[in-house]
Design brief:
mainly alpha; three-stranded antiparallel sheet; 12 helices
Length: 336
C-alpha cells in the first residue's frame, strides 16, 4: 500500500476523534500541487532531448542541469509545509506537556489527582494518549519526509533537502523534539523499574544508563529507530536534573547554569539572551529550555545511588553560591 493511502487511513481511522483536535500534514493537497506544476513539467519535456545528448557527451553535466526552484510550487508548497510543521510541533509539545504534567504533578494538584484515582483510574487513558501522540508525530514526520523527497524528484533539485535543513535550524525537526524523549521516558516510567510491563505503547523503548555512553532508544512505528545520548556535554556524565535547550542539546541544570554564567538558584530563565549553547554556539537557546522531568524521574529510578550523589553535590553547590551571592550583595549595599 502506498504511503498516501496509509496516511489517509490513519487520519480517518479509529483515532479520528483524537486527530480532529490537531493539525496534520495536508499530504494529498501538497501532492496535487506537485502534480499540477506545469512549469516544471514543460521544462522537463522541452529539455528531455537536450539532457539525453548532454548526458552522452558529458555524464557529469546532468548533475548541474537541475531545476533549482519553481515559483508555481514554491510559493504555496514550502510556505504551507512550514506552517503545517510549526502547527504540528506546537500541538505535539503542548499536548505532551499537559499529559506529563498530570503524571508528575506536584503540590496540591498531586493530592487532588491521587484522590480522583481512588474513584477513577485515569492511567489507562494517559497511556492511550501517549500511544496516540507517538503515532501522531511519527506519521506526520514520515509524511513530511515523503513529500519533500517527491518534490526533489519532480524538480530534480535539492530544495527539499535544503528545506529539511531549514526546519532543523528553526527547531521544527519533529523527531528531534525533546518532548519525544520525555514521552519515551514516560513510557519507561510506566513500565516500572524491574522490567515488568505495565501497559505497552505502540513502540518499544529501552534505556541503558550503566554504560560509558548512557542512551535512551525509541523504536517508533514504521521501523523508525531513534537513539538519544544522555551524556552531558560539559561534565561528560549522565545528565542530572536535565534541561534541553532550544537547539536540542541536553545538559545538567548546574552545568548549563555554569556555562551561561548564572547561579543555580537563579535558573536558566536568568540567562542573558546572548548566552550561547556550549556545543553548537547558537545564541538565545536558554529562554525556552525544557526541564526534562520524566527523564530525571527515569534516571532517579534506574540509578538511585548516582542520582542521590548528584543531588547532594548540587545542593551543596547551590548553598555555596547563595552564600557568596548574598555576601556580595550585602557588601554592595553597606559599602564594605
Amino acid at each position: 500500500m502506498k504511503f498516501g493511502e496509509t496516511f489517509k487511513e490513519y487520519l480517518h481511522g479509529d483515532h479520528e476523534w483524537f486527530l480532529d483536535k490537531f493539525s496534520h500534514v495536508e499530504y494529498k493537497r501538497l501532492k496535487k500541487v506537485l502534480k499540477s506544476c506545469r512549469t516544471c513539467k514543460a521544462l522537463h519535456d522541452s529539455d528531455e532531448k537536450t539532457e539525453q545528448i548532454d548526458d552522452e557527451e558529458n555524464p557529469t553535466l546532468s548533475q548541474f542541469c537541475q531545476c533549482q526552484s519553481c515559483p508555481a510550487c514554491d510559493q504555496m508548497f514550502f510556505t504551507e509545509l512550514m506552517r503545517e510543521a510549526t502547527d504540528i510541533a506546537g500541538c505535539f509539545s503542548s499536548r505532551v506537556r499537559h499529559l506529563l504534567h498530570l503524571h508528575v504533578a506536584t503540590g496540591m494538584q498531586r493530592y487532588i489527582l491521587r484522590l480522583q484515582q481512588c474513584f477513577k483510574n485515569d492511567q489507562q487513558a494517559w497511556v492511550q494518549e501517549g500511544q496516540m501522540l507517538m503515532e501522531y508525530i511519527t506519521m506526520n514526520a514520515i509524511a513530511i519526509r515523503k513529500i519533500l523527497k517527491k518534490y526533489d524528484k519532480v524538480h530534480s533539485s535539492v530544495n527539499g533537502k535544503n528545506f529539511k535543513s531549514k526546519m532543523r535550524a528553526e527547531h521544527l525537526e519533529l523527531l528531534q523534539s525533546p518532548w519525544l524523549i520525555e514521552l519515551g521516558a514516560f513510557s519507561l516510567n510506566f513500565n516500572g523499574t524491574d522490567g515488568g510491563a505495565f501497559i505497552q505503547f505502540s513502540g518499544s523503548f529501552a534505556c541503558d544508563l550503566n554504560t560509558t555512553e548512557p542512551v535512551i532508544i525509541l523504536m517508533l512505528p514504521h521501523s523508525i529507530k531513534l537513539e538519544y545520548n544522555l551524556t552531558c556535554g560539559i561534565c561528560l556524565e549522565t545528565v542530572f536534573n536535565p534541561y534541553a535547550l532550544s537547539c536540542g542539546h541536553l545538559f545538567c541544570k548546574s552545568c548549563a547554569c555554569s556555562a551561561a554564567s548564572v547561579m543555580i538558584f537563579q535558573g536558566l530563565k536568568a540567562t542573558s539572551p546572548d548566552s550561547k549553547c556550549p556545543i553548537c554556539r547558537e545564541a538565545g537557546v536558554y529562554a525556552n529550555a525544557v526541564r526534562m522531568l520524566e527523564l530525571d524521574l527515569l534516571i532517579k529510578r534506574r540509578c538511585k545511588d548516582y542520582w542521590k550523589e548528584r543531588l547532594v553535590a548540587e545542593r551543596a553547590e547551590m548553598v555555596k553560591q547563595s552564600k557568596q551571592y548574598w555576601e556580595s550583595q550585602t557588601k554592595y549595599v553597606i559599602g564594605y
